[in-house]
Structures are given as C-alpha cells and as structure tokens.
C-alpha cells in the first residue's frame, strides 16, 4: 500500500528540505557562535527528521534534548490542551535554548513551552521550525528561524502525521481531505 496515493500535492520536496536545513544551520551557527553550548530541544515525535537533518548543518557544540509535548490528541486540529508527556533530563537554568519544531500552527504548544523554559531559568529561548502556518495562529507567536511559510492546509510527511501515519514520507504533502473526513 503506497502512502503517496493519499497525498493531494507536495508542498515541500526533498531538495527544498535539504536546502532549508543547510540555510537554517548556517544562520544558527552564525547567531550562536558566541554562546556556550546551547541546548537544542526537539518536540517529539514530529521533530525527529528535521532536528536530525538540521543538526548536521550546525557547526557548533550543541546538546540535544527531547520533550514529548502535544496539543493534538488525535484528529486534525489542536485541542488547546497542552500536555507534557516526557520532560527533559537537563536543567535549562542559565542556558541558551533552541527549540526545533516541525511546524508552528496555533502557537499554543510553543507559547506554553517557551514560558515554562523561561520560568525554569533559561537564558534565552528561540524557535527554529521547518514549517510556519501563520493562518492557523490562535495566539500571537513568531518563530525566529523559519524554513518555509505554508498555507492553512493539513500537511503530513517528514515527521508530520495523521493518526501516527505518514511521518516517514521524505517530503511534506497536503493530505487528501477524504482521508481525514471519513
């Protein structure tokens, strides 16, 4: 069974993803060169491909941590209820933090996590995202590093899922509505 048959169109192809990771890696390397061992936090599960590819283009000593945080509890829209399922193992007090995210949509999850990390004493907290969907915002939120801005469509692939499927697609595509409106 091919997953590609469920994709209406490809929004960000493999080559574009590679170029985005290279560009963002250079920007982050330049911006963080004077900072002492920043922590890059990946928000599971969707961040995994992006964080892995991006980290290879950051030419600095960085630590990598993960948190399992979600406001999507099945379905295609945010519930508004942000849950932390797995916290980090490292203290962020006095540290520069870079959160790697697959997509910024409503802004709720990241707003909550940024406030939490600042409350824990982080020196700075910035966001790097592969995809920015500003039309989906329910609260004002602007990531510092953006791969590409996308329209308000339901996207899957390259870490993004629908009911835990499609994460392994090597590109980001728009899921056909008939798949999630059954």
TrEMBL record:
Gene that encodes the chain: hpt
Subcellular location(s) per record: Cytoplasm
Alphabetized SUPFAM superfamilies for the sequence: PRTase-like
Pathway membership, UniProt: Purine metabolism; IMP biosynthesis via salvage pathway; IMP from hypoxanthine: step 1/1; Purine metabolism; GMP biosynthesis via salvage pathway; GMP from guanine: step 1/1
Cofactor(s) this protein cannot do without: Mg(2+)
EC number per UniProt: 2.4.2.8
Catalytic activity: GMP + diphosphate = guanine + 5-phospho-alpha-D-ribose 1-diphosphate; IMP + diphosphate = hypoxanthine + 5-phospho-alpha-D-ribose 1-diphosphate
BP GO terms, sorted: GMP salvage; guanine salvage; hypoxanthine metabolic process; IMP salvage; purine ribonucleoside salvage
Signal peptide from the UniProt entry: none
Family per record: Belongs to the purine/pyrimidine phosphoribosyltransferase family.
Broad class of the protein's primary localization: cytoplasm
PANTHER family in the record: HYPOXANTHINE PHOSPHORIBOSYLTRANSFERASE, HYPOXANTHINE-GUANINE PHOSPHORIBOSYLTRANSFERASE
GO molecular function: guanine phosphoribosyltransferase activity; hypoxanthine phosphoribosyltransferase activity; magnesium ion binding; nucleotide binding
Keyword Glycosyltransferase found: yes
GO annotations of cellular component type: cytosol
Species of the source: Acholeplasma brassicae
Pfam annotation, one family: Pribosyltran
Keyword Glycosyltransferase applies: yes
Protein name per Swiss-Prot or TrEMBL: Hypoxanthine phosphoribosyltransferase
InterPro entries, per the entry: HGPRT, Hxn_phspho_trans, PRTase-like, PRTase_dom
Domain Phosphoribosyltransferase positions: 12-162
């Amino acid at each position: 069974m091919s997953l590609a048959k469920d994709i209406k169109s490809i929004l960000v192809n493999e080559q574009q993803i590679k170029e985005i990771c290279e560009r963002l890696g250079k920007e982050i390397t330049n911006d963080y060169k004077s900072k002492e061992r920043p922590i890059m936090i990946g928000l599971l599960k969707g961040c995994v491909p992006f964080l892995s590819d991006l980290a290879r283009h950051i030419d600095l000593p960085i630590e990598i941590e993960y948190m399992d945080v979600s406001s999507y509890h099945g379905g295609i829209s945010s519930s508004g209820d942000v849950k932390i399922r797995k916290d980090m193992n490292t203290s962020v007090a006095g540290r520069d933090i870079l959160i790697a995210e697959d997509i910024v949509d409503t802004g709720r999850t990241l707003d909550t996590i940024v406030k939490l990390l600042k409350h824990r004493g982080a020196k700075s907290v910035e966001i790097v995202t592969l995809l920015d969907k500003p039309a989906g915002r329910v609260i004002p939120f602007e990531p510092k590093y953006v791969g590409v801005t996308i329209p308000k469509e339901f996207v899957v692939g390259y870490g993004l899922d629908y009911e835990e499927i499609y994460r392994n697609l090597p590109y980001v595509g728009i899921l056909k509505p008939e798949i999630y409106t059954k």
